[in-house]
Write a structure and sequence with these properties.
3 helices; twelve-stranded mixed sheet; single chain; outer membrane lipoprotein receptor (LolB), chain A; alpha+beta; 12 strands; 237 residues
Length: 237
């Protein structure tokens, strides 16, 4: 209910074309990056939900990830244990599939071990922004193809947050209308993301909960051993 109130406020401002409150985007970004830099390690639950509808068919995906990361110099050690539920509806028929995986990064390589349709698969690739929980890197990546705009500050749950709107620079032909990202003021962490389709419908959400700042994480949490008999596919470039 609290988040719904937050979104109603943001949406009303978007529809009315209201100007952001005092404070620039640059000011908010600087504070976000500054606060995030103070975090040495973190554990949290991230829940992603996505849905697509087309010609009477509907596909929905829900992924729950238990995420842990810690800094090692300029690099991030990262671990995520994920459970995904995919539901397909076609007329009167409904099918559900569940997959699970573990992803570990040493800051240079990413190794993923997952079970898909009853089979174990392992892959290795170069680390990139998708497994680097670096807020500055994320903002820089977004700015390449999007325009960022600061919106009025809001509360997400009990947390005071900065609200940043992300608009694609190339609007024609895009399936995305806009994205709203909410960053906690106290730690600079993005705790809620909402992606809107071209009809302004919500097509994707990401919510971060159960946040623990600077927990003690043993180094072996970021080592993944591939079981015997599972082939490792190297996708590194």
């Amino acid at each position: 209910m609290i988040f719904r109130t937050c979104m109603i406020r943001v949406l009303s401002l978007m529809c009315c074309g209201a100007a952001p409150e005092a404070g620039s985007l640059e000011e908010a970004e600087n504070k976000i990056v500054e606060r995030f830099a103070e975090i040495e390690s973190l554990a949290a639950t991230i829940t992603n939900e996505e849905s697509q509808k087309s010609e009477g068919k509907e596909i929905s995906v829900r992924i729950v990830r238990q995420v842990e990361w810690m800094r090692k110099g300029a690099a991030f050690l990262y671990r995520a244990q994920s459970k995904a539920t995919t539901t397909r509806k076609d007329g009167q028929s409904t099918t559900t599939r569940e997959d699970s995986s573990t992803t570990v990064s040493d800051g240079v390589r990413v190794v993923r071990l997952g079970e898909e349709e009853g089979r174990m698969k392992a892959t290795q690739r170069n680390a990139d922004v998708t497994v680097t929980p670096d807020i500055k890197a994320m903002l820089d990546e977004l700015r390449k193809d999007n325009t960022l705009k600061r919106f009025p500050d809001v509360k997400v749950g009990l947390d005071d947050c900065y609200a940043i709107q992300v608009l694609p620079k190339q609007r024609e032909g895009s399936d995305l209308l806009q994205t709203m990202i909410f960053f906690r003021k106290d730690i600079g962490l993005d705790v809620r993301t909402v992606v809107y389709g071209k009809k302004n419908e919500i097509i994707f959400t990401s919510t971060t909960t159960n946040v623990k700042v600077n927990p003690k994480l043993p180094p072996d949490r970021f080592v993944l051993t591939i079981p015997d008999g599972v082939e490792l596919m190297d996708e590194s470039r």
